[in-house]
Amino acid sequence: MKTTSLRWGFFGAGKCTHDFVSALKLLPLDHHKVVGIASRDSNKAEDFAEKLGIEQAFGNYSELAESDNVDIIYIGTVNSEHFHQAKLALLHGKHVLCEKPVCINRAQVEELVAIAKDKDLFFMEGFWTFFFPATRKLLEEIKQGSIGKVVQMTVEIGNKFYHLDRFSRKDIGGGTLLNHGVYGLMFAHQIFGQPSSISASGIISASGTDESVAITLTYRDTAQIASIICSSKVNMPGELRVIGTQGMLKLKFPFWAPTILETPTETLQFDLPLNLEAIKFNNLNSSGFTYEAETVRQCILNGWRECPIVGWNASRAVMGVADEVRRQLGIVFPHDNNTLHASEICADKGQRA
C-alpha cells in the first residue's frame, strides 16, 4: 500500500457487507476508500454498487481478487464460502478481513494462516465485538483486577432466526454455534485462554443443524468456568457477565456490539461514532464497524500481519473448540472433508491473541 488510504474490495453483497461499507463512509476518505464489490450475481453486484456509490462491480470473485486497485478484501458471504474466498484473495496478494466464523473448522484456519505467512499478508477474522470501546474496557477491568479473581463467565445469545438459511442450511455451515456461539467462545478465549475440558449438548433441527446449544468450558488449573448458551429458536437476553470474587462486570444487550458496561461501582455508556449523514444500517450498532476497520488500517500501515486484538492463535483456538462441540453434537458439514476430530484442546494454552 503506497498511500495511507486503504482501498477496500468486498466479496458478497449482503446485509453485513452493506453495513460495513456504510460504516466506512463515517471515516475519512483519505483513510478508507471503497473501490469494488463482487457477487456471483452480476446484477446484484451492480445494484449494490449503484446504491452505495462503489466504483466497480464484478460478476465473479476472481476478477476483484485480480484487481490492482484493491489492497484488502472484506468477506461477508455465507460460512461455507469463507475459506475458499479468503484463500483466493490471499493467493492474489490481497490482505483479508473475513467475517466470523473465519472458516468452518480449524484445519481450514491453519491453511489460511500458512498462506498469509507465506505471502506476507494481513489476515484477520472479523470479530468486530472486540474493537468496541465497551469490550476493551471490560477486558481492561479484568486485567486490573477490579472484580478480584474471575471465577465465571456466562453468556446467552438467541434470536428466532431458525427460518434463515444461515441457521437452517447445513450445506452452508449453518447453525447457532457458528453464527451465535462463537461470540461466547471468543470471549472465553480472551478472558481465560484454552479450556482443560469441553462439554456440549444441544438440539438438532430437522435439517441437521444445531438450533439450541449449551456449552461448558472448564479451566481446572485456575478453577474457572465459562457457560455459553445459544439458540436460533428463542430470544435470549443477549448479555455477557463476568463474575469475580469482588463483583461482576456486565455487557448489556447487545453484548456482541456493546455500548453499555456495568461495573460494581458505575454504569458506563460508550457513544457510537457520529452518524451525521443519518446512514441507515441493517443491524444494531453497525456504525461500530468503524472501530474494526480503522484498527485494520493501522495494523497494515505498521506492517503487522496479524492483529494483536484478534490474532491467529485466537481464531485457531476458537475454531478448535467449535470443532469439538460439533463432534460432541454429531454435526459434520459437507466441507469438513474428514478433518473433524477430537480437538487438542490444550495445545495453545496461554496463547490468547
TrEMBL record:
Catalytic activity reads:
(1R,2R)-1,2-dihydrobenzene-1,2-diol + NADP(+) = catechol + NADPH + H(+); D-xylose + NADP(+) = D-xylono-1,5-lactone + NADPH + H(+)
| Uppermost EC category | oxidoreductase
Ranges where the Gfo/Idh/MocA-like oxidoreductase N-terminal domain occurs: 6-127
Q: Which keywords appear in this protein's UniProt record, sorted alphabetically?
A: Oxidoreductase
EC number from the UniProt entry? 1.1.1.179, 1.3.1.20
A GO molecular function annotation here is:
nucleotide binding
Q: Which positions carry the signal peptide feature in this UniProt record?
A: none
The residues covered by the GFO/IDH/MocA-like oxidoreductase domain are 136-249
Domain of life of the organism encoding this protein: Eukaryota
**What Pfam families does the record point to?**
GFO_IDH_MocA, GFO_IDH_MocA_C3
Family, per entry: Belongs to the Gfo/Idh/MocA family.
Q: What is this protein called?
A: Trans-1,2-dihydrobenzene-1,2-diol dehydrogenase
